[in-house]
Amino acid sequence: MTALSPAPEVAARAADDALEPTGSTAAARPRRLGNVLGWLFVVALLIGVALLSMRFVATQPDLSGALHPESANPAGAKALAELVRQQGVEITITRSRTEAQAAAHGDATLVLVDPFTLSDEAADELTSSAERTVLLTSSSRMLRLLDLGELGSLTGGMVESDCDAREFARVGPIEAVRLFEAASGVEACFRDDSGSAAVLHSERDGRTLTLLEGAHLFSNAHLAEDGNAALGLALLAQTDRVVWYVPSFEDSDISGEQQDTLGSLTPDWVTPAILLLLLAGIAAACWRGRRFGPLVAESLPVTVRASETMHGRARLTARAADAAHAAVAIREGTVIRLSRRLGLSARASAQEVADAASDRLRVPRGSLYELLGGASPATDRDLIDLARRLSELEAAVENAVHTERNVP
Fold first, then answer.
1. I want to staple 382 with a disulfide (CB 3.0 to 4.6 A). Which of 24, 190, 361, 377 is the partner?
2. SS3 86
3. How far apart are CA 164 and CA 189, in angstroms?
4. Eight-class DSSP state of 250
5. For 62-66, 73-77, 274-278, 286-290, which range has the lowest pLDDT when averaged over its residues?
6. What is d(CA 185, CA 253) in angstroms, rounded to the nearest whole number?
7. 331 C-beta neighbours (distance < 10 Å), count
8. Cβ neighbours of residue 83 closer than 8 Å, sequence gap 6 or more
9. 270-278 long-range Cβ contacts below 8 angstroms, 24+ apart
């Protein structure tokens, strides 16, 4: 019978061992799924970085700039273009100066923002092809090229038309952010107190030239302010057709000054190298991911004995040679044990414990105050003496309490 007694324990352990793999498999399945999702996220991130890099390499910068007639951005001029169309005016948008010159003949208004991609000769030829030209720019080059004047103040404030041009008669005041100094023979409209004008208007050789800074006045964000919309109609709705030229580098005639892009500066081998690195990264992720496999969770409870903790703290204190800190720990332990033996609360102070011990032992309270809450020892010798005296105090209290309990 004695030999069969361990059988139930062995059977119980075998049953526990048989149940453990089932729990580990169930815990591993979510981890394996999370591992797969993590690798998919890494692959998707690598593909996204590669596509973004290719976009930076292949995409040229947007050259439309401000006051683009098809742009609905705050800096675009789509609102002005639609407002002009509502007046029955046909608007032709082109990026070719050849097409612009061909379309600007007769009763048409040529609108230019800043033909910065054209040379002086090409810009002068383009403006000369139309009987009526409106320049929505404050370019000093165009002012010099067309002999309209020069740049003036940057802060003009609210100004009114105050000129003889009929189209500006019904235009209200506008807020000018760029003023110009008119050249001889050029009419200055919307002038401030100093005589600087926000609009320069010139009629020469049967051609009409009007220049103003339109980035603030005619943009989608500011068209509805003050008399900006009325000024736009006064400039662009005087003819049946409007030819709006948008500059582009493809239409530039400036040789040797083609602006380099990221795609043109990048060597031809960069894109294949990026694709090769992407494929290598995906292959390495699949190879290393399958090799490591999912992690296995194991339950490993750790029990630390109180004595080991005590000895460890004691070794740290001894190594640090901190006699004062060790004395505090010894006194706290003594106060806790004495309060339990004397029937006090667990939160009793050292003075309360000293009072209770003094009553039991019939000794002066001052000596016990000094022993339980006095100055900390400075050396190891003083620490040993303090520990010995505290041990004697505990033994004396234990004997006194034990004697009282045995007295009938």
1. 377
2. coil
3. 8
4. G
5. 62-66
6. 31
7. 19
8. 223, 229, 232, 233
9. 270/57, 271/54, 271/57, 274/50, 274/53, 274/54, 275/50, 278/46, 278/47, 278/50
What H or E segment, with its residue span, contains residue 395? helix 380-406
The SS3 of residue 360 is helix
DSSP assignment string, 277-323 = HHHHHHHHHHHHHHHH-------------HHHHHHHHHHHHHHHT-H
**Helix locations, 183-242, DSSP H:** 214-217, 228-236
Q: DSSP letter string over 23-71?
A: HHHHHHHHHHHHHHHHHHHHHHHHHHHHHHHHHHHHPPPP---SS-TT-
State pLDDT tens for residues 379-404: 888 888 888 888 888 888 888 887 76
Alpha-carbon distance of 70 to 109, in angstroms, equals: 18
Q: What is the DSSP letter of 168?
A: G
At 216-253, the pLDDT tens digits run 888 888 888 888 898 889 889 888 899 999 888 887 77
d(CA 272, CA 54) in angstroms, rounded, equals 10
Side chain identity at residue 217, one-letter code:
L
pTM of model > 0.85: no
